[in-house]
Amino acid sequence: MYHGICAARFGLDSAIHALAGASAAAPYLRLHIMGEGEALPQLEQLARRLGIIDRVVFFPPGPPDAVVDFVAQGDIGITPYTSNGFMDLALPSKAYEFASMRRPIIASNTPAIRSMFRPTSMVLCEPSSVESFRDAIVDLYRHPQKRAQLVASAEYEVSLGLNGGAVPAVN
Fold first, then answer.
1. Which among 127, 97, 100 has a CA at the least distance from the CA of 13?
2. What is the CATH number of the domain that holds 101?
């Protein structure tokens, strides 16, 4: 799942391509996107062109309670940011939200994202690499124990303030 702005810099096209590539290995996967932005029409068109429009579900943005419900219903949070001078420094608050709601995270390996959590707390992928995201998706799909380990590690870091203390501990 992803929630937030739908703009090219957030790499959602890579996530859609990765989902298409993971289809044979993980036929029941769905990508849920909640948000709006200038890239939304292109993302819908891409999913249609790749033949997975039935597996990519677009939700309109909503109030905070709707976002909480959206994350609570998802299995894995993604932050597939591109890598450039700006996005390398962008801190995705959604990663803290995923961690606080006990969701494993697949994220782009950017300096800012690496500063948020240790590599044992999220799966880091090469930015804009469809193959890297595809492999991470399939790996977490096949290994529920790995998903649980990522969640436990992120929760532990949050509780100790190892990630800068931006999110209070989850009880």
1. 127
2. 3.40.50.2000
